[in-house]
User: Which sequence fits this backbone?
């Protein structure tokens, strides 16, 4: 495994920031790392990158122990922290050449990276002249410059306009084909567009860890239906694929079906056949945002 955490605990005095987090990620996997503010995401990332030591537990990057040998492990990592640290008085190309000299990266690779993140037209400028979106690109360029096996990106799309979002999203997906990417964001649509798997943390604990496709292919659907007058349960039970129902208010029903077929047309036909009028018919989608709110609220 490229990333391995086992029962990570981090205490700041009496405050328990992480309470036994464990997960692993392999090469070719893009993992979305989600949680509300203060959940422990940034602390976990700092431990993964060797900037913080855990109170207890084990962490390794590409088989290298990050507690006993962090420098060797950091050679395998590209890291873009939430607050992107840049030497703003330097020119873009100069800054990346500086990074390249640390990793012994040649000028050709530097120019390839500048092109890959869309900085060709900005490379001659000082970083302090750049917009926030372009500064994010400089940070991402520095993170991928040495071709790391593991990429850890903390809010990488902050400050990007819609066109830049598409470009960086495509770049991250391309990088994820032969690297391990841990991707933290508050934008659920970004996770749904980029990631293969989702981790959700709450109050220092991992509360969800599943492939995104399992959420996307969930065959259960919930439909709220409002009819023009009260009907009996035996009529509702005639609906096909119905697995549960509630009748919270006189003419309102919450109907749960086990099928990939959209059941709204079926309910409409059912109403007509039974002389009913439909006053409301809404499908509630179980998307990532809904799951996040359910698990973290």
Assistant:
């Amino acid at each position: 495994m490229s990333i391995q955490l086992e029962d990570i605990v981090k205490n700041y005095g009496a405050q328990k920031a992480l309470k036994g987090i464990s997960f692993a990620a392999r090469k070719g996997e893009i993992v979305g790392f989600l949680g509300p503010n203060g959940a422990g995401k940034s602390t976990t990332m700092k431990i993964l990158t060797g900037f913080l030591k855990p109170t207890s537990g084990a962490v390794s990057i590409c088989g290298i122990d990050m507690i006993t040998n962090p420098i060797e492990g950091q050679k395998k990592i590209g890291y873009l922290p939430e607050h992107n640290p840049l030497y703003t008085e330097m020119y873009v190309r100069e800054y990346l050449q500086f990074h390249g000299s640390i990793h012994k990266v040649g000028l050709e690779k530097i120019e390839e990276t500048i092109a890959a993140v869309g900085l060709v037209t900005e490379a001659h400028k000082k970083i302090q002249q750049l917009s926030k979106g372009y500064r994010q690109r400089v940070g991402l360029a520095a993170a991928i410059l040495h071709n790391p096996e593991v990429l850890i990106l903390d809010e990488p799309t902050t400050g990007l306009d819609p066109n830049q979002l598409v470009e960086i999203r495509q770049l991250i997906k391309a990088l994820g084909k032969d690297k391990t990417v841990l991707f933290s964001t508050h934008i659920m649509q970004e996770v749904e567009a980029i990631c293969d798997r989702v981790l959700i943390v709450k109050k220092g604990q991992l509360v969800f860890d599943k492939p995104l496709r399992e959420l996307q292919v969930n065959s259960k659907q919930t439909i709220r239906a409002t009819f023009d007058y009260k009907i009996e349960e035996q009529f509702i039970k005639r609906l096909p694929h119905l697995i549960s129902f509630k009748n919270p208010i006189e003419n309102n029903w919450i109907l749960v079906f086990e099928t990939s077929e959209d059941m709204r047309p079926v309910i409409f036909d059912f109403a007509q056949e039974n002389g009913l009028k439909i006053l409301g018919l809404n499908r509630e989608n179980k998307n990532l945002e809904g799951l996040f709110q359910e698990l973290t609220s």
